[in-house]
Amino acid sequence: MKSLDYSDEEIQIAGTDAYNFQGVNCPHNLAKVQPGEHVLDLGSGLGVDSFIAAARVGESGKVVGLDIAKKEV
Hints:
The chain is an alpha+beta fold.
């Protein structure tokens, strides 16, 4: 995750799932998710980016992770 420019804070939010992360990019650098927003994470896989987004939107926002692989969901 560090090589994809995730911040230390984002890696901390990912927790132990950071070691299993298989993403190809860091969408958070461009998305700039704000409190109260609604986020759809397409191809969410383990949900690492969903958890990071959830930390940013807070209780007033909403995050939905969508993946087609049953094992991922």
